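Dear Dr. H.,

I hope your travels went smoothly. While you were away I took the liberty of generating a structure for the chain from your last submission, since the lab meeting agenda had it listed for discussion. I wanted you to have the full record in hand beforehand rather than looking at slides cold. The sequence, exactly as received, is reproduced here:
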Amino acid sequence: MLCTCRVGVELREVTAADVLAFFEHQRDPEAVRMAAFTSADPSDRAAFLVRWARILADDSAVARTVVFDGEVVGHVARFTRFGEPEVTYWIDREHWGKGLATAGLELFLRSEPRRPLYARAAVDNLGSLRVLEKCGFVAVGEDVGFAEGRGEDVEEFILRLDR
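The corresponding predicted structure, in token form, is as follows:
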């Protein structure tokens, strides 16, 4: 895969301090609305920390911190959902539009051997859909589910990366 990664973007193991930064990132109401499929209460720090402790303790999951110019700007992870390996990512809204999600996901995919990989995004989350497309994912289906971040059912695309 050709990497068009931005200079200054790197991935590293997730630390406890990173998880606290992730918590702050996911409290942004506009980001929560765009992501749609989030926790029921983005301000519930205890629930967030428990969820991340579970992720980090899961030997079948892989999570990495996205760092840009020395600053924690988000994360990318692979976990199992509906019996299939799925990737997810979150970039702090302050850094949207800089190519950091694409760069972080490209770097992650270089070290993630599992294929196929799946991803999901709300049909109106054009930025995330573009990131996935740039990284080689293609739409293979649609689904509708209740999105806590919007308080309603939301259509989403299911995407797959085969190569």
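Two observations you may find useful: The chain is about 30% helix and 35% strand. Strands lie at 9-13, 62-68, 71-81, 84-91, 117-122, 138-147, 152-161.

With kind regards,
E. W.
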